[in-house]
C-alpha cells in the first residue's frame, strides 16, 4: 500500500512508512531476518533484477533508502551491493549512483544468474550444452552406479510422480534427478559444473516443464533409471540423447509458433 507525503510516494508498512523506489516500478521486498542479513538482501535485489522489476540501466535506490526499505543497517546493504557489483549485476558510477547492468550470457555463467534473464536462443544453447554434458554423464553413471546412488535416483523418480500437479516442486525433482546422475559419474568436474549452472538449469527446466507438461519427462526418466540400474551404459547414453534432442525439437517448435503468432498480430 502506498501513500503520498510531501509530494513523495512512500510504501506503507505495519510498522511505519518507508520510501519506495521511483526508477521503474514498485518494489515488494520482504522483511529481513537477523541471520545472514546481507545475503538475504543480496538474494532479493538479485531477484528484482531477474524478474525485470529493475531493468538494465535503472538507477537503484541509495544505500539509505535501501536500508529503510529492508529495515537493516547500511553496512548490510553495502555488503550486498558490493557482492552484486563484483558479480557484474550492478555497476557503481562515481558521483552518480548504482545502476543495473545489461546481463549477457557470459556474465550469467560467471554470476549464477538464473536463465530467466536470457532470451530463447540462449535457452536452446543451454539445452545443446546439456546434450553434450549429460549424454556422457548418463553413460558414466550407468558404469559407476552403486546401490546407494541407485536408491537416491529411485527416490527422486518416485517424487516426480507425486509432484505432477506442482510445477515448482516437480521441476526441482526433475533437476535433482539429473544432478544425481551427475553425482553418480564420480567425476568431480562434472559435479562442479552442474553446481555452477544450478540456477540457470533450474529456470530452464521449469520453463520446459511448463511448456511440455509432466508426462514426457517422467517417461524418459523411468527409462533412464532402468538403464542405469541395469548398468547398461550405452542404453543410458542413447536414452539421454533422445530425451534432450526431443526437448530441443519441441521447444524450437513452440518458439517458432509463438514467433509466427506475433507476426500475424
How is the secondary structure organized here?
Elements: E1 2-5, E2 8-13, E3 16-19, H1 37-50, H2 63-70, H3 74-86, E4 90-93, E5 97-100, H4 105-111, H5 120-144, H6 147-162, H7 167-184, H8 188-196, H9 198-212, H10 215-229, H11 233-264
Instruction: Give the helix level as a range of percent.
Output: 55-70%
Summarize the main sheet.
3 strands, antiparallel
Query: How far apart are the termini?
Result: 36 Å
Mean pLDDT, as a whole number?
A: 83
Q: Which ranges are low-confidence, i.e. pLDDT below 50, for 5 or more consecutive residues?
A: 1-24, 111-116
Keywords:
8% strand; disordered N terminus; 265 residues; Arc Repressor Mutant, subunit A; 11 helices; Four Helix Bundle (Hemerythrin (Met), subunit A); 2 domains; two-stranded antiparallel ribbon; three-stranded antiparallel beta sheet; mainly alpha; globular
Describe this structure in words.
- The protein has helices at residues 37-50, 63-70, 74-86, 105-111, 120-144, 147-162, 167-184, 188-196, 198-212, 215-229, 233-264, and strands spanning 2-5, 8-13, 16-19, 90-93, 97-100.
- It has 265 residues and is mainly α.
- It folds into 2 domains: 2-102, Winged helix-like DNA-binding domain superfamily/Winged helix DNA-binding domain (Arc Repressor Mutant, subunit A, Orthogonal Bundle), CATH 1.10.10.10; 109-258, Up-down Bundle (Four Helix Bundle (Hemerythrin (Met), subunit A)).
- The strands form 2 sheets. The chain has a 3-stranded antiparallel β-sheet.
- Strand 1 (2-5) and strand 2 form a beta hairpin.
- The longest helix has 32 residues, at 233-264.
Amino acid at each position: 500500500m502506498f501513500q503520498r507525503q510531501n509530494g513523495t510516494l512512500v510504501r506503507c508498512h505495519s510498522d511505519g512508512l518507508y520510501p519506495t523506489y521511483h526508477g521503474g516500478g514498485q518494489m515488494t521486498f520482504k522483511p529481513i531476518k537477523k541471520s545472514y542479513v546481507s545475503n538475504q538482501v543480496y538474494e532479493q535485489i538479485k531477484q528484482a533484477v531477474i524478474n525485470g522489476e529493475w531493468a538494465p540501466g535503472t538507477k537503484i535506490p541509495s544505500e539509505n533508502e535501501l536500508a529503510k526499505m529492508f529495515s537493516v543497517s547500511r553496512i548490510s546493504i553495502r555488503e550486498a551491493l558490493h557482492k552484486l557489483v563484483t558479480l557484474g549485476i550492478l555497476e557503481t558510477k562515481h558521483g552518480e549512483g548504482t545502476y543495473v547492468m545489461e546481463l549477457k550470457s557470459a556474465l550469467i555463467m560467471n554470476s549464477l544468474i538464473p536463465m530467466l534473464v536470457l532470451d530463447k536462443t540462449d535457452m536452446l544453447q543451454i539445452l545443446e550444452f546439456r546434450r553434450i554434458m549429460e549424454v556422457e554423464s548418463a553413460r558414466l553413471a550407468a558404469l559407476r552406479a552403486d546401490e546407494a546412488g541407485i536408491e537416491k535416483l529411485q527416490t527422486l523418480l518416485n517424487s516426480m510422480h507425486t509432484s505432477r500437479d506442482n510445477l515448482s516442486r516437480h521441476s526441482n525433482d526433475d533437476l535433482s534427478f539429473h544432478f544425481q546422475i551427475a553425482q553418480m559419474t564420480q567425476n568431480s568436474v562434472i559435479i562442479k559444473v552442474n553446481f555452477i549452472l544450478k540456477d540457470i538449469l533450474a529456470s530452464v527446466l521449469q520453463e520446459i516443464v511448463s511448456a511440455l507438461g509432466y508426462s514426457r519427462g517422467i517417461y524418459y526418466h523411468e527409462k533412464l533409471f532402468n538403464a542405469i540400474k541395469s548398468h547398461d551404459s550405452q542404453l543410458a547414453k542413447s536414452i539421454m540423447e533422445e530425451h534432450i534432442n526431443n526437448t530441443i525439437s519441441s521447444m524450437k517448435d513452440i518458439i517458432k509458433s509463438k514467433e509466427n503468432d506475433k507476426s500475424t498480430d
